[in-house]
Amino acid sequence: MSHRRKRFTFGIVLLVLLLLAGAIYLRKIAPPEAARLLPESDGIIYLNFRAIRSVAHFSDHPVQHAPDYQRFIDATGIQFERDLDEAAFALHQMPDPHGPNGAVAFSDVFVGHFDGRRLANYLSTLAASRENYAGHTIFSVPSQGRTVRVAILGYDIVAVSNTPTPEQIHSMIDRYHTAALPFAGSSLLSKHYAQVPLLSFAWGLGKIALPLGKTGGLHVMGVRLPIPVNATFIASLRWIGRIHLRIEEIAPNESAAADSTESLQMLLTLVHSLENSGGDQPFDPDTRTFLNSMNLVRHENRAVLTATVPTPLLERMLASPEEIKAMPGSSAPPNQNTAAPPAATKAVEAPARKSAAAPAKKKP
């Protein structure tokens, strides 16, 4: 082989390697596929349960399953605390907060290990009707005066939506066919995902305060925290040798940001005073570490809260149904340490019951 041909061959190989490295890099910094499949929405929440399991070492004690959830496991073979790898939720603000969906409807994408045949058979027993769209079957399940639509997109991906129209489930199916494009996704994701810190295993962006801000604020220990539904939030949890929490509020104006900062600072001062007073129920060491690590700053119309979350505290939050009640779409059992499937999937399990959410609670 001539010297010129060798150089040409080497150049081709180098170009292919550079293109491959570039493609891998783009996919690495691109939003997760589960989030890219979500339709247009007002807010997005994403959870990487594989990373959560590796960061938080959950208890090895057996987890008791609620009877309805156990029947779901028996029928489908799906056990969410073991089989669910990722979940992404889209929040849709409803024009009528008193309608069947309440103030917010949800579209969800679940990624994990599923037996598609068993799941389809199970959904067939619940569905009031079916629709074939773009090569996929959409199961329509009546639930609490609304319709929950479910589509099995692939061997490891399921899409769910309880919005009033099928537009959102159709959108997720359409996006699934273009999922190979690393920067595909909703306009909200395109606009704000770059502001999510790298290596975040859980994050939310957009109007993620919608489920909390229906009355214009949240009362904690007698202190009102203004949570404007028009504010954009970018929240994240990531591992940087420790679990780092960051919540940024992009308020409509400086005055709204100042109100939020002042109210939260007042609450932190109250909490610290209770801690120092040494009351009947002092905070445990992990909670004290979390509270003492909080730092709050404001710049113009942005307020940023950062803190360190001790791993045992995160483990308890994920293991306790009471702590998970605030998660979108959730309605955990009041006093049992039970495992339940994620929000909209629970609605598919029992159409006549309220949907419940309890993500991975035990390390497999």
Q: Low-confidence segments, ≥5 residues, pLDDT <50?
A: 320-345, 349-364
The CA-CA distance between the termini, in Å, is: 56 Å
Oligomer: single chain
In N-to-C order, the SSE pattern is HHEHEHHEEHEEEEHHEEEEEHHEEHHEH
The rounded Rg comes to 22 Å
Average pLDDT reading: 78
Q: What would you call the shape?
A: globular
Helical proportion? 25-40%
Beta-strand proportion: 25-35%
Strand order of the largest sheet: 5-6-7-8-4-3-1-9-12-13-15-14
> What's the domain count?
2
Topology:
Blueprint: H1 3-29, H2 33-36, E1 43-48, H3 49-55, E2 64-65, H4 67-76, H5 80-83, E3 84-93, E4 104-112, H6 116-126, E5 129-133, E6 136-143, E7 146-154, E8 157-161, H7 167-176, H8 187-192, E9 200-206, E10 218-220, E11 223-225, E12 232-239, E13 243-250, H9 254-277, H10 285-292, E14 295-299, E15 302-309, H11 311-319, H12 321-324, E16 338-339, H13 343-349
Word description of this protein:
Strand 7 (146-154) and strand 8 (157-161) form a beta hairpin. This protein has helices at residues 3-29, 33-36, 49-55, 67-76, 80-83, 116-126, 167-176, 187-192, 254-277, 285-292, 311-319, 321-324, 343-349; strands at 43-48, 64-65, 84-93, 104-112, 129-133, 136-143, 146-154, 157-161, 200-206, 218-220, 223-225, 232-239, 243-250, 295-299, 302-309, 338-339. Mean pLDDT is 78; it is low at 320-345 and 349-364. The strands form three sheets. It has a twelve-stranded antiparallel beta sheet with strand order 5-6-7-8-4-3-1-9-12-13-15-14, sandwiched between helices. It is an alpha+beta fold. The chain has two domains: 1-30; 31-349, no CATH class. Helices cover 36% and strands 27% of the residues.
